[in-house]
Prior knowledge:
The protein is mainly β. It contains no helices and 32 strands.
Amino acid sequence: MKALHYSYRSRFATLPAFAFLRGAFLLAPLVALPLLGKQVFADEPVTAEQPTLDQKVLADLPFGITSFGAARVANRIFVYGGHIGNAHSYWDESQSNELMSLDLNAASKPWQVVATGKRLQGLAMVAHGTKLICIGGFQARNKKGEEHDLHSASDVDVYDTETATWTQLPSLPQGRSSHDAAIIGDTVYVVGGWTLSGNEETHWHQKALSMDLGAEHPQWTELPVQPFERRALAAVEHLGKLYVIGGMNSDGAPTRECEIYDPKSKTWSKGPEMDGQDGMAGFGASGWSMNGRLIVSNIHGDVQELAKDGATWLDRGKSNDARFFHRLLPLTDDSLVAIGGASMESGKFLTPEVITAK
């Protein structure tokens, strides 16, 4: 059996432990996280390795972030926006407006701020060619100490990594945050999330959207009504289909459920639930499809792989840093990197963690 191997270097930002309240952002009861440490796969041990980009260590983030956008273009990883303040406290300057880049050819050197934009969190960001597509998110219009005044954005901002310029694509039909996005071919898909409008009632989205980025005049198109209403989920392109994994349902319950959208038949189908004893295993999880292998990591540090027949999830052991509201991105031909995110026990992570598939 193939196994995944993990690095064991980590550092935390000094922030309070996480707790999630009822409604918009926080959830109770809290669940106990498993002990961290070396774990064993089905029949092969986990080996403690340094991150591998020719054995170079990836630089720490300059500050801890959750609920941000991340993507890779060529040999650079980009991170944009996100929550940088204390847990469950939102104000304008608690949301980052920086687009940061890490050059993987000099991975131990500090992250660089390459541009600034809107202060956002709960956004999605995908790469298309040399461009970064930043979709939605929410803005806190209140100052620190004031009552929350949170509004989902409909903007779709594009950063060209070659010209270092911002442009815009057509806005979303409605503001959307706590969603995710993925690219299949030249088409970007946006799924899940809700619309926050200050004191007005929160609207949960029942339809995903798509846009052909190769069209002469790109426009958003609604997908068929989906069989779920969820936020804080993961959207992953895998073998030409859109996998929607985990999140929180509109009734406030976290879930391990998985749905699949087939762009060819334009239909939704049910996928297998992630493994786990509680719904929190899917809340704020992140995933990536690497060389035909769909891999997901979650709040408990579980790393799971979708079986080749697509019917079950396979246990691939534990990561060192049990994080959620992070991002998984491709690193080398056989490795992923987990960036940002947080633990409810220890706060936000600064150090990226490399997951190497063998």
